[in-house]
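Could you show me some protein's one-letter sequence and the numbers that encode its backbone in two labelled lines?

___
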Amino acid sequence: MEYTLIDNEARKRYEFQIGEHTPLIEYIRTTDKIYLTHTEVPEALSGQGIGTALIGAALRDIEAKGLTLVPLCPFVALYLKRNPEWKRLVLKGINIA
């Protein structure tokens, strides 16, 4: 299923709006870097791949904006480990084991 990514700058998070639910990735942004700090998927949507889809959409947006990624969220780090092609966005010197 295709979801529309919302960059909710006022709340400093990426979101999907799915019915009454809002899966999200919280971030801290500087001029040229974005720190993804926390991913949250409501229990009602758990196990449907929505968190993975949200991270993928956020990474595409980060790349389009020319930002450098600092993945502080363990779920984002796991996504990067499983999808190493996205490591090109990660700040040099950060090791995704």
In short: The mean pLDDT is 96. Residues 17 and 23 are 7 Å apart (CA to CA).
